[in-house]
Design brief:
The complex is a heterodimer of chains A (270) and B (417). Chain A is an alpha/beta fold. Chain A contains 9 helices and 7 strands. Chain A has a 7-stranded mixed β-sheet with strand order 1-3-2-4-5-6-7, with helices on both faces. Chain A is globular. The relative contact order of chain A is 0.15. Chain B is α+β, with helices and mostly antiparallel strands. Chain B is 52% helix and 21% strand. Chain B has 10 helices and 12 strands. In chain B, the strands form 3 sheets. In chain B, strands 2-1-5-4-3 form a 5-stranded antiparallel β-sheet. Chain B starts with a helix and ends in an 11-residue tail after the last strand. Classes of the chains: A alpha/beta (270), B alpha+beta (417).
Chain lengths: 270, 417
C-alpha cells in the first residue's frame, strides 16, 4: 500500500532533518513549483514532495472522477501520503488550493500536523456579498474557456492516441511537460473543484497554528481574502509579502523562504 | 530607437516584456494600440492589467509556472483585455531573458480571430456532443429503469394472475360442490316427500271413513276433532306437495307441455278459484286483459303461477283493498301482472321472496298460512318455460308481480338462397 501511494502520487523524499515538511502544489502545476524553495530547508527538515493524482507524474490510471469531484478527495491524497510515510509533527506547506486541501486534511487528523503554511490561500474564489473572493462566476467560465482552447489540440488528437496506446505513456508527456497536467479532462475537473469550492466553514475547525503568506497585488487571492482568513483561523499569522502575483515561491522564493523560516523559528503558540 | 527596434515596434505582431514582479518593461505599439493604449501608458503597469479576468487566473496557475519552470512557452492561447473591455484572443510564445541582472519574460502575441472562431465552433460542437452523450446516457439509464419497472410489474401481474386462477379454481370447486349438494338435497326432498305422502294419504283416508261414520256413530265433539285433523292433514300434504314440486323442478324432473296459450282464457279459468276468498275479505277485482294474446307456455303451469300470485295478493292485502290483473305484450313477450294494494315488500327483500322458504314477515305469514315455497316454484316454472317472474314493490302501497312469457315464436327470417 505505502509503495503504491508513493508511486501513485510520485512521492519524493529528501533532506537531512527528521521533522517532515510536506509541500503540496497548487492547481495547474506539480511538485516542481517548489524547486526554488525546498533546497533552503533540506538541512533541517525531511522534505516530502508529491503530485496529486492527475497532476505531474502521478499515476493517472488511479484517477477516480467521483473521488476527485471535490477537494475532499485531494485531501485524502495528502492523508494517504502521510500514512504511507507515517508522517507526524508535520509542517504542511500548501500553495493556493492546497492551502484549503491542507486545512481539510488537518481537520481530519489534527494530531499529525504541527503547523500549516498557507501560500496565497483562498477559502472561496467567487464573491458572496459581503464576502469578497475576487471573482464572479463568469470569470471562472473565462478560465475554463482558456483551458479548453489550450487543451483543444491535445484533447482532440493526442488523447485518443493515448487511450489507444496505453503502453506508450510518452504520448501523454507532451502536455505534462508544458502544463504539468496529465489530462485536460482531469485538469478541468480540478479547476471546478478548486474555483467553485467554498471552505469558509472549515476554517473555524482548524486547531493547528498557521502562517498565511499573502502577496501584495495577487489577482487570484486579493488582500481581502488574506484578512478574512486571518480573522477566521485561530492561531494564525498573516504576513503580507512584497512579492506580487499568486506564486511568490516562484516569483520571489527568497522572501518566501525567509518568511517561512522566521515563522518556524518562532515558538508554537500554546 | 534602433532600426531593428523601430521595426519591432511596428511589426505585425504584439510584443511585451515583463519582469517576475509582473511589471511591464516594454511593449510595442502594435500591441498597445490594438488594446487602445499608447505604448508609454503601459510601461510600468502590471502585466495582468491587459489580461481578461479568466486569463489572470490562467496566467498565474499555468502560464507563469510554465515559463518559469521551462524557460519558455509556445502557442499558448490567452485572452487580452482592451482598454474599452474588448476581449482579444492571442496565441503567445514566450521566452525568459536576463538583462541587466533582471529576468524578463518576453512574449510575442499573434491575434487569432478566424482560428479562434474555428476553435470555438469545434469546442461548441464537442460540448453539444458531450451533452447529447450525457443525455443519451441519462435516457439509457431511464430506459433501463423503466424496463426494470415493467419487468417488476409483469412479475407482479403474473403473481396476481396465478392468484386469480387459484381463486377461480377454488370458486369452481366450491360451485361444483354446491351443485352437487343441491342435487343431493333435491333428491332427498323428492324421496322424503314421497315417503311422507303415503302415510299422510292413509291418515286422510281414515279420517274421512271416521267422519262418514263407517266405524260407528261420531259425537259432535269428535267430529270437530276429526275436522281439525283433516285440515291439518291437508295443510301438511300441501306443504309436502310444494316441497316435492320444487325439488322436482330443481332436479330438472319437470316436463313442460308448451303450446300456444290464450292468456285471457287462463285468467278466466283461474278467477273462479279465488273469488270466494276475495269476497270474504271484501277485495275489489280490476282486470285489464287484452283478448286473444297468445303465449308459448304450459297452460297448467301458467294457471299454477297465476293462482299462486293471486293467493299471495289476497293473503297480503287488507280488507277493502283491491287486486288488479292486467296483460300486455311486446314483440317478443307477453306480460301478465298481478297488482295489489297490500303491505308491500321492503326493497332489500324484493329478490329474497323468490328464494325457497322465505317469507317477508314470518308472524304474518304464519297467520295467513303458507309454505313459503310458492314464489320459488312459480319463478322456477316461469323460467322453465323460457320466461321469468319478477316483482316491484313499495313498502305500504302494494306489490306488482309480473310473469313474462315468450310470445308465439317469430316466423323464421327469410334468408336469400
Amino acid at each position: 500500500m505505502s509503495q503504491d501511494v508513493r508511486k501513485r502520487n510520485n512521492v519524493k523524499v529528501s533532506g537531512n532533518g527528521t521533522q517532515p515538511m510536506l509541500f503540496a502544489h497548487g492547481f495547474g502545476c506539480d511538485q516542481n513549483m517548489w524547486r526554488y524553495v525546498t533546497p533552503q530547508f533540506e538541512d533541517d527538515y525531511r522534505i516530502v514532495l508529491f503530485d496529486y493524482v492527475g497532476s505531474g507524474k502521478s499515476d493517472v490510471s488511479a484517477y477516480d472522477a467521483k473521488r476527485y469531484d471535490s477537494l475532499v478527495g485531494y485531501a485524502q491524497d495528502v492523508l494517504d501520503v502521510v500514512h504511507a510515510l507515517d508522517l507526524e509533527d508535520i509542517v504542511f506547506v500548501g500553495h493556493s488550493v492546497s492551502s484549503m486541501i491542507g486545512v481539510l486534511a488537518a481537520n481530519e487528523e489534527p494530531e499529525r500536523f504541527k503547523r500549516l503554511i498557507l501560500v496565497s490561500p483562498s477559502p472561496r474564489y467567487i464573491n458572496d456579498s459581503p464576502y469578497v473572493g475576487g471573482f464572479e462566476q463568469r470569470d471562472i467560465e473565462g478560465l475554463f474557456e482558456m483551458m479548453d482552447h489550450n487543451f483543444i489540440g491535445w484533447a482532440n488528437f493526442l488523447a485518443p492516441a493515448i487511450m489507444k496506446n496505453a503502453d506508450r505513456p510518452e504520448l501523454g508527456s507532451e502536455l505534462t511537460e508544458s502544463f504539468c497536467s496529465t489530462d485536460p479532462v482531469i485538469t478541468r475537473q480540478f479547476a471546478k473543484a478548486t474555483f467553485l469550492a467554498d471552505n469558509r466553514e472549515d476554517l473555524s475547525r482548524v486547531k493547528i497554528p498557521s502562517l498565511i503568506l499573502q502577496c501584495s497585488d495577487d489577482m487570484v487571492a486579493p488582500l481581502d481574502v488574506g484578512e478574512y482568513l486571518s480573522r477566521e483561523l485561530a492561531d494564525s499569522t498573516l504576513r503580507v509579502m512584497k512579492a506580487v502575483g499568486h506564486c511568490p515561491h516562484m516569483s520571489d522564493p527568497e522572501e518566501t523562504v525567509s518568511l517561512i523560516k522566521e515563522y518556524l523559528s518562532s515558538p508554537v503558540p500554546a | 530607437m534602433s532600426k531593428l527596434g523601430a521595426l519591432l515596434d511596428r511589426a505585425p505582431c504584439g510584443f511585451v516584456s515583463y519582469s517576475d514582479d509582473s511589471r511591464i518593461a516594454a511593449v510595442n505599439s502594435t500591441l498597445a494600440e490594438r488594446l487602445g493604449y499608447d505604448a508609454d501608458d503601459l510601461v510600468g503597469k502590471p502585466f495582468e492589467e491587459i489580461l481578461a479576468t479568466g486569463s489572470r487566473i490562467f496566467h498565474q496557475t499555468h502560464f507563469f509556472p510554465l515559463v518559469k519552470l521551462h524557460g519558455r512557452a509556445q502557442e499558448i492561447f490567452m485572452i487580452l483585455r482592451g482598454r474599452d473591455g474588448e476581449d482579444v484572443g492571442v496565441l503567445c510564445n514566450a521566452v525568459r531573458h536576463e538583462r541587466d541582472g533582471i529576468t524578463f519574460t518576453d512574449c510575442v502575441m499573434m491575434e487569432v480571430r478566424e482560428r479562434r472562431k474555428f476553435e470555438d465552433a469545434l469546442l461548441e460542437a464537442k460540448k453539444v456532443a458531450e451533452l447529447a452523450n450525457a443525455t443519451l446516457e441519462e435516457q439509457a439509464v431511464e430506459l433501463e429503469l423503466q424496463h426494470q419497472q415493467l419487468q417488476e410489474l409483469a412479475a407482479e401481474m403474473e403473481v396476481q394472475s396465478e392468484q386469480l386462477q387459484a381463486v377461480n379454481e377454488d370458486l369452481e370447486r366450491q360451485r361444483a360442490a354446491a351443485d352437487e349438494a343441491n342435487l343431493a338435497k333435491s333428491n332427498f326432498l323428492a324421496v322424503m316427500s314421497h315417503e311422507l305422502r303415503t302415510p299422510l294419504n292413509a291418515i286422510g283416508g281414515y279420517v274421512q271413513l271416521l267422519q262418514m261414520g263407517v266405524h260407528g256413530p261420531v259425537l259432535p265433539d269428535q267430529l270437530e276433532a276429526l275436522d281439525r285433523i283433516d285440515r291439518s292433514q291437508r295443510h301438511l300434504l300441501r306443504l309436502i306437495n310444494d316441497v316435492l314440486n320444487l325439488s322436482r323442478i330443481e332436479a330438472g324432473h319437470v316436463d313442460y307441455r308448451v303450446e300456444l296459450v290464450v292468456v285471457s282464457e287462463v285468467v278466466e279459468s283461474v278467477m273462479p278459484m279465488v273469488e270466494p276468498q276475495m269476497a270474504t275479505k271484501s277485495l275489489r277485482l280490476e282486470t285489464a286483459i287484452a283478448p286473444r294474446i297468445e303465449a308459448r307456455a304450459d297452460r297448467e303451469k301458467v294457471q299454477q303461477i297465476l293462482l299462486n300470485l293471486l293467493t299471495n295478493a289476497i293473503k297480503f292485502t287488507p280488507r277493502g283493498g283491491s287486486i288488479c290483473v292486467e296483460t300486455s305484450a311486446d314483440s317478443t313477450s307477453v306480460m301478465l301482472r298481478v297488482i295489489d294494494t297490500g303491505v308491500g315488500i321492503p326493497p332489500d327483500m324484493i329478490e329474497k321472496v323468490f328464494e325457497p322458504f322465505i317469507q317477508v314477515d314470518t308472524s304474518r305469514s304464519r297467520s295467513a298460512e303458507g309454505t313459503g315455497l310458492g314464489l320459488a316454484i312459480s319463478r322456477d316454472l316461469a323460467r322453465g318455460m323460457g320466461g321469468d317472474l319478477s316483482a316491484r314493490s313499495s313498502l305500504g302501497s302494494g306489490s306488482l308481480f309480473e310473469l313474462r312469457l315468450p310470445r308465439e315464436s317469430k316466423p323464421a327470417e327469410s334468408t336469400p338462397s
